[in-house]
Amino acid sequence: LQVNTGTAGASPATVGQECPASRTASSVGNLCVRIYDIGRPMTELAELVPGQTPNIDRLLTRIDLKEGEFFGFKDRFLVEITGELLAEKDGDYGFRVASDDGSELQVGGKVVLSHDGVHPASFKEGTIRLKAGWHPFRLRYFENDGQEGLRWEWRPVGASAFDLITSDSMR
What we know:
By secondary structure, the protein is mainly beta. 0% of the residues lie in helices and 46% in strands. The protein is built from no helices and 13 strands. It has a six-stranded antiparallel sheet with strand order 4-2-6-11-8-9, with no helix packed on it. Strands 5, 7, 10, 12 and 13 form a five-stranded antiparallel sheet that branches. It has a two-stranded parallel sheet with strand order 1-3. It is globular. It starts with a strand and ends in a 7-residue tail after the last strand.
């Protein structure tokens, strides 16, 4: 499924600080969150038309968005969050995403977890082996109708439980 939200080439309507064109060391702690108004029912994550411009372009320091915290969007929207994640040491990193509706997490270009489809809020977990250093990620999420929510956690090497990713581990 591919969608065109009708805003390709348009300037995004921005709430707060816009996402920078490139990620740098000064971007640490800021995740680039882009929201696209789809405007029609969805049953799965959709691929956007190349060059698609978001309706909202926002920097956040964590991903723990609850009902009513999607910058004015309630239903039928798609979220794309991109950036880099810092693995402090080599090893297996666990990731957990809670979403209502579908979501998918990619780290280093590999799908770590896929929790697609229309469903109530629930968690999905995945693990990936990472070398120490910065790794690109892409977290996608869609909301069809009803309640919405998105939370991203991890279990770094040596940790016993999942927790929200701290801002010093992202850029």
